[in-house]
Amino acid sequence: MQTIQMSDIYGQYLTMKKEIDSAMQEVIKSTLFIKSGKAIDFEKKLSAYLNTNVIGCANGTDALQVAFMALGLQPGDEVITTPFTFVATVEVLALLGLKPVFVDVCPNKFNIDSSKIEEAITNKTKAILPVHLFGQCADLETIKKLTEKHGLFLIEDACQALGTEFIFKDGTKKHAGTIGHIGCNSFFPSKNLGAFGDGGAIYTEDESLANVIRSIANHGMKAKYQYERVGVNSRLDSIQAAILEVKLKYFDKHILARQAAATYYDEHLSGIEGLQIPAKASYSTHTFHQYTIRTVKRNELQKYLGEKGIPSMIYYPGAIHLQEAYQFLGYQKGDFPISENLAETVLSLPMHTELTEEQLEYTADIVREFYL
Ligand SMILES: *Cc1c(COP(=O)(O)O)cnc(C)c1O
Question: How many CB atoms are closer than 10 A to CB 46?
C-alpha cells in the first residue's frame, strides 16, 4: 500500500499532467501573465460554473479583505463571525479597523450557531460573516433572514466550500458563496479547487459591487493610470488560472471522490462509542474539504494513528479569541465553550481525491482498533 497522505496534490496532478503542463506552457508563450489571457478565461469559466460574477484575486485572505473594503464600512463597525475558523477570517476585520464580534458554533456541524446570532446584534453591527467550515454551509437561510431584518451585509467565507450547495427550504439550491452579498474563496493548494501556489476569488451577483471589487483589487483603478479609490494589488495570475482552468473540468468528479471517501469513513466509523463522525445538515451538501471527527481521546488517537503511518491534522487547535494577537478584543476563556472544546477534541483524517479503498479500509480499521 502506498503511504497515506493527508492531501495528495502531486498524485492528483499526475492524473491531469499533460493538460496542466501544456496549459502552463501556453501562458509562458503568450506572456499574458496578469489580468489577461488565462486569468480572464478562468474567471469566465468559474463564473459560468457558479452563475455569478467572479473576480480573481491573490488569495482567500485578500478576497475577504477586498470584500470588506468594498462595503464602505467605518472603523469600529461590528462584524459577527465565529472564533472557530482559520485566522484569516478575523485577521482582515482587525486590519480594517472593524470589530469582530464572536458567536459560538454548533457542536456537531462546527459552523456558527444561527440561534445565537440575534442576541449579538447591536446598533454598530454592519455584517454577518459565516464560515462554511470543512466544506459544509452554515445555516444561511436563517442568517439571510436576520441580515434582511436588521439591514446587514451577508458576506460568506466560502474558502473551504467551493462546490458545496446550499439547499433552501423550498428545495432550490445555490452554490456556497453565491447567497450573500459577497462570497470569498481561496485556491490555496489543499483547498477543494487548489492552485500550485496562492490564489483567490470574490463572488457577487451585484454588478456595481463587482465593479467596485474589481477596482479595489487592482489599485483602485478606473481607467489606465486613473485611480478612483485607494486599492490594493491583489490579482490571480495566469499560471495559477491555467492550472485551475484544467482542474475545474474535473472538479465535479473530484468532489464525488471526496464524498465517496467520506461515505466510506461514515459507514465504517459510525457507532463507535466516544467518536463523533461529521454531522450532515439538511440544508447543505458537504464537499469534505476536511473529514473531521470529534473525540475526547483526540491526542491519544492522533498519536496512535501516527504510529501506524496514518497522518491526521488538528483544524484548529486554538480558538481565535484565546490567541495572543486577539486578546485586545477582550474575550476570555469560557466565553465560547463549544469552540474551546472543539479545539481540544477535533481531528481531521486523510481526505483527498486519490485515496484508495485499501487506504480507507486501513485507516478505518486502525481507528476502530484504537477504540477496542
Ligand atoms: C484558507 C482559508 C482562508 C484564507 O485563504 P488563503 O488563500 O490561505 O489566504 C480564509 N478563511 C478560511 C476559512 C480558510 O480556510
Answer: 24
Centre of ligand 1 from the C-alpha of residue 189, in Å = 11
User: Could you tell me the pLDDT band of residue 333, with boundaries at 50, 70 and 90?
Assistant: very high
Q: Which domain holds residue 317?
A: 251-371
Residue 348 sits at the vertex; the CA angle it makes with 143 and 321, to the nearest 5 degrees, is: 55
| Mean pLDDT taken over the chain | 98
Do 226 and 260 share a domain, yes or no? no
In this structure, the residue with its CA closest to atom 5 of ligand 1 is 60
Residue 276 CB neighbour total at 10 angstroms: 17
Whether 186 is in the pocket of ligand 1, judged by its Cβ within 6 Å, is yes
| Any atom of ligand 1 within 6 Å of the Cβ of 157 | yes
Same domain for 79 and 33: yes
Q: 238: which residues sit within 8 A by CB, 6+ positions away? A: 27, 30, 32, 33, 34, 36, 37, 38, 39
Q: How far apart are CA 367 and CA 372, in angstroms?
A: 9
Does a structural domain hold residue 324?
yes
Distance from Cα 58 to the centre of ligand 1, integer Å: 11
User: Would you place residue 365 in the very low, low, confident or very high pLDDT band (cuts 50, 70, 90)?
Assistant: very high
Tell me the CA–centroid distance for residue 90 and ligand 1, in Å: 11
- 240 with 259, same domain? no
Regarding pTM above 0.90, the answer is yes
Grid cell of 81 as nine digits: 463571525
Query: Mean pLDDT over residues 135-162, rounded?
Result: 98
Q: How far is the CA of 115 from the centre of ligand 1 (A)?
A: 25
pLDDT tier for residue 315 given thresholds of 50, 70 and 90: very high
61 close to ligand 1 (CB < 6 Angstrom): yes
User: Looking at 187, 218, 249, which one is the last position of a domain?
Assistant: 249
> What's the rounded mean pLDDT across residues 261-277?
97
The CATH number of the domain where 140 resides is what? 3.40.640.10
Kindly state the average pLDDT of the residues 25-42: 97
pLDDT of 372 > 90? The answer is no
Query: Which of 86, 240, 290 best tests ligand 1's pocket when mutated (most atoms within 8 Å of CB)?
Result: 86
